[in-house]
Write a structure and sequence with these properties.
This protein is an alpha+beta fold and 243 residues long. It is built from 6 helices and 15 strands. The strands form 3 sheets. The chain has a 6-stranded mixed sheet, with no helix packed on it. The longest helix is centred in the middle third of the chain and has 12 residues. The protein is globular. It binds zinc ion. Zinc ion binds next to loops.
């Protein structure tokens, strides 16, 4: 199982009291229902895993009290924030960008699911600002890790994406490769990275796993490559339980 999960050493380590992972298609199968806390041993020592229905929106769920197996989180959210040790907040991706956020001083974590729609709707900045406000965090303390997703090598988009991108971002030319007007390849990870930096997080505290889910069939599920949802990668982060 050595290659089944991807971690970022520079981002966080066990001595910081946090564990995180970006999943692959070889990760251990986990049984869970969206919106229902599940007991898990994924990435070691997590008491609970929580993944919710994702709707490509820009709303974040804040979990600020202990979870139990009778809890139900029945809305749709594309980000989860918690200050509760032992709760792994998890987002599912298969080309979209998984973003993990950690504050070592105030002890809070967040997991964000950012496709083009959510990214343009502000899911990244909104989640970071919400996390900072709720837990009295200085954004300059935050560390961000951006995980495997569809890369600019493969991720061709059309007017449905290009039009809102060009209206929403003055820097849109820097985010496109091989721009032919009505279609181009989008660097979604670069967009997410810029959005994280724009909240005030220092560049050196933002790590990017520069791997493309479309390019690597043996490692990742890809909605774009496979044309349907064959599976999704789980990406999560948890504060280590102090018990
Ligand atoms: Zn690629």
């Amino acid at each position: 199982m050595a290659a089944s999960l991807i971690t970022v050493p520079a981002f966080a380590s066990a001595k910081d009291g946090v564990r995180h992972f970006f999943g692959t298609r070889q990760q251990m199968p986990v049984t869970y229902d969206t919106g229902v806390p599940a007991k898990t041993t994924a990435a070691r020592a997590h008491a609970w895993m929580l993944s919710v229905k994702q709707v490509h929106g820009n709303d974040a769920l804040v979990v600020d009290r202990p979870v139990t197996e009778t809890d139900r989180f029945n809305g749709g959210w594309d980000a989860l924030i918690t200050d509760q040790p032992g709760v792994a907040v998890v987002v599912r991706t298969a080309d979209c960008v998984p973003v993990l956020v950690y504050d070592r001083r105030r002890k809070a974590v967040a997991a964000i699911h950012a496709g083009w729609r959510g990214a343009l709707a502000g899911i990244v900045s909104k989640t970071i600002e919400r996390m900072a406000a709720r837990f009295s965090i200085d954004v300059a303390d935050l560390r961000v890790s951006i995980g495997p997703s569809a890369g600019p090598c493969c991720y061709e988009v059309d007017q449905a994406v290009l039009e809102p991108l060009r209206h929403g971002r003055q820097d849109w030319p820097a985010l496109l490769h091989d721009d032919q007007g009505s279609k181009a390849r989008l660097d979604l990870k670069a967009l997410v990275r810029r959005q994280a930096a724009e909240t005030g997080i220092p560049h050196e505290q933002i790590t990017v796993v520069n791997v493309c889910t479309i390019c690597h069939p043996s490692l990742f599920f890809s909605y774009r490559r496979e044309g349907r949802v064959n599976g999704t990668m789980l990406n999560g982060i948890a504060l280590v339980s102090r018990r």
